[in-house]
Amino acid sequence: MIVAKSLDAALIALREHDDARVIQGGTDLMVEINFNHLKPTTMVSLRHIPELRTITRPDGNTISIGSGVPYSQLEIEPVASVLPALAQASRTVGSPQIRAAGSLGGNLGTCSPAGDTLPVMFALDADIHLQSSDSHRTVSIHQFMTGVKRNVKRHDEIITAVDFPIIDGWQGYSKVGVRNAMVISVASACLVADHKSGDVRLALGSVGPTIIRCRETEQWLKDNASLTHNSVISPDIAREFGARASRECSPIDDHRSTAQYRRHAISILAARLLQKAYS
Ligand SMILES: Cc1cc2nc3c(=O)[nH]c(=O)nc-3n(C[C@H](O)[C@H](O)[C@H](O)COP(=O)(O)OP(=O)(O)OC[C@H]3O[C@@H](n4cnc5c(N)ncnc54)[C@H](O)[C@@H]3O)c2cc1C
């Protein structure tokens, strides 16, 4: 195990060891190792790198969260007021122990469609910073996640931070699982209502190979903009919104749920989030 004390040291270690895996909180990686799914010979620990644990406001419109920031910090201020949906999503992750160790970067590194922070990133059009020893690039979350546990990050790159736009509006996250706590989602949704542009954005988790942005449902609401003007959404409109969202997802049957139940859950989650946004 190489315990890096700086980002540069971690990047050099990655460049010099082709087989190295980075580890932050270890709440995903150690499970993979314990089940013998992975046998990395070199691990590069990012846990003691202060640069990855910062929360900054590079400009008035953006909040940038370091990849090593754990959920226990994302649940509270200053994140809770600026990104309430991210705070809500973080509060639903695992147990206090998992939230103390697990990080935003680890959720992205694993890139499971059930990752709780990912629908928030998709609904807010977040940008991911990727750093290697000789280059830096910023990738939209829409390009970053390419499939189930697949993303465009190269082996020699470290996710350093995620930039979230600060919106003037409402945002919320909800998830359904087989019980109330310590549960991977069966279906999840993040809704953002941007009061400045009037746009409503909806992203769904656990109901497709990637997080799904419901572009058609969003457009339907926009085309019927008068529906949101009265600041109260009727139950009929909310139901129609939910029904349209459920048609945009492509869930599967698996050990956690059936596709049919997942579609039903999405229709309810989306409808409720829309009503909350305008209540
Ligand atoms: C009991 C339990 C309950 C859980 N509950 C939930 C839940 O409710 N919701 C949920 O979304 N997840 C849950 N998880 C999964 C896990 O906690 C999260 O995905 C967490 O965000 C992983 O973060 P980590 O820092 O522990 O990542 P690690 O395990 O350290 O790493 C995960 C992967 O990301 C890579 N990685 C980590 N950091 C970086 C980086 N900066 N740059 C590049 N690659 C990186 C690693 O190489 C590895 O492939 C649970 C896990 C357990 C064990």
Q: What is this entry, summarized?
A:
This protein has 279 residues and is an alpha+beta fold. Helices cover 37% and strands 23% of the residues.
What does this structure look like?
37% of the residues lie in helices and 23% in strands. The chain is α+β, with helices and mostly antiparallel strands and 279 residues long. The strands form four sheets. The chain has a five-stranded antiparallel beta sheet with strand order 4-5-10-6-7. The termini are far apart. 45% of the residues are buried. Bound molecules: flavin-adenine dinucleotide.
What keywords describe this structure?
alpha+beta, Enolase-like, domain 1, 4-stranded antiparallel β-sheet, 14 strands, binds flavin-adenine dinucleotide
Query: What's the mean pLDDT score?
Result: 95
Structural class: alpha+beta
- Taking pLDDT < 50 over at least 5 consecutive residues as the criterion, the unreliable ranges are none
Range of strand content: 15-25%
The CATH homologous superfamily of one domain is named: CO dehydrogenase flavoprotein, C-terminal domain
Rg estimate, integer Å: 19 Å
Number of beta-strand segments: 14
Name the bound molecules: flavin-adenine dinucleotide
Report the oligomer. Answer: single chain
Q: At the first level of CATH, what is the class of one domain?
A: Alpha Beta
The tally of helices reads 13
Give helix and strand order, one letter per element, not per position.
EHEHEEEHHHHHHEEHEEEEEEEHHHH
Overall geometric form = globular
Q: Kindly state the percentage of residues in helix.
A: 25-40%
The N- and C-terminal alpha carbons lie at a distance of 52 Å
Question: In this structure, how is the largest beta sheet organized?
Answer: 5 strands, antiparallel
- Physical arrangement of strands within the biggest beta sheet: 4-5-10-6-7
